Amino acid sequence: MRQRFSHRSFVIGWLSIAGLACALASPSPSSAAQSKSRETSAPSSRPSTVVVIDAGHGGFDRGGIPRQRIAEKTMTLDVALRLRKKLLEAGYRVVMTRDSDVFVPLWGRVAIANSNDNAIFICIHFNSATRAEANGIETYYYRRDAMTLADNIHRNVIAGAPSENRGIRRRGYYVLRKTTSPAVLVECGFLTNPTEGQLALTTAYRDKLAEEITRGILGKPALVARAPASRYYPPATEVEAQPFDSYVGTDFIKAPPEHSTARHRKRSRGARSKRSSHQRTAQRTKSSGHTPAKKSMPENAED
Fold it and tell me: What is the C-alpha to C-alpha distance for residues 163 and 196, in angstroms, rounded to an integer?
């Protein structure tokens, strides 16, 4: 009887030890839930989980300059839609200010961007100029917290585009100044340039632009190193906002300070009207056949 009881106690003890070992080996529901929570929250370690993409122009606003052959609104929308697809594949939530050929006012674009928390704002544009030789890629920002994003995107786009590096500039455009999240505007080349305009018409190049912008948003290094834009300065007619002095990136353009354009225009307009008045007086005098009388010198004037 004592032996049977001892054997039963041994079996119960062995089962208890085995059950404890199994319990320690298998994860508890709480630990499994914590592990799953860590997995789902992994993407949240990014600077932002939401990307608001703004395709420039649209609807009646064709973009560019008068009589431009390639419609900017079509090119920006195509690149924006390709960018959306790539960012969705990378795990981002994407919001579009427009996904068809419609016009959205600037305040509407800003309102869409500001209604999304923890977001970044990417504005897609193409450049244009009356001078066909103008070419190159340039990137704009305004807020201090958008500098790194602008640098990453610009470096990657420049690496994938056979165009001039026109640098990164701080400019107070409405969509950059009024958004409450980091915002960057990318000028993807000149549609008025024969080479860049022809490239923009190809599907492969537009897809390449979207790919390089995606790499910049992800913070990946550029695949090709390009010469910095340290020697390029914008035309004297442009008034640039100065970059923040705390950053020394080689692609950031610091233009020399200039006078107010409004005051300059007012002074120029006054000079033009005064000059035209003198020309009209001279023309009337010439047509009447009279010569203007010379001013008499004062009697006490010295030779």
Answer: 8
